[in-house]
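quick one, 162 residues, struct below
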Amino acid sequence: MIPVTDQRRTPDLPRRVLFLNDVGFQYGAGIAQSRQLECIMGLGIEAGVLTWAHGNIQLENVATRVIIPELWLGIREVNSLEGGKELSDEAVIAGLLMEVARFNPEVIIVGNLHAARWPFQLLPALRGLGCRVLAFLHDAYLFTGRCAYPGDCTLYLTGCNA
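---
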């Protein structure tokens, strides 16, 4: 792929950003991540999505502006890498690292992960690729480690009994 020369992107901005989440552009968090993606491409930065399952909603269905094809790297689904199934956490992380490396990002923005059941050790492992890694909390899952919406429950402070 030939790098895109875009006058909007200043030299201090990254060339390529990868968004990583569980269900693509589905639901509120997916739509929020699509808005972030649009803003990133609006700066002249190439962007793509790696997701466990992308569902039926494409970026074009939720976009609020024209998608620039030269900057949109697409969405890749990796539902064979589901956590908590036949694969060990180490195998899931190794597979995800290989998929992330294909995008060759400078920055990774991590959204919701709970539907994919990817292990939390993925976050520091991503840093091992030499990228900046940002976790964007759309709910409490990355904080509590168990419940996306704990409500009045405070067991995340002492340990889950579920």
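The first strand starts at residue 16 and ends at 21.
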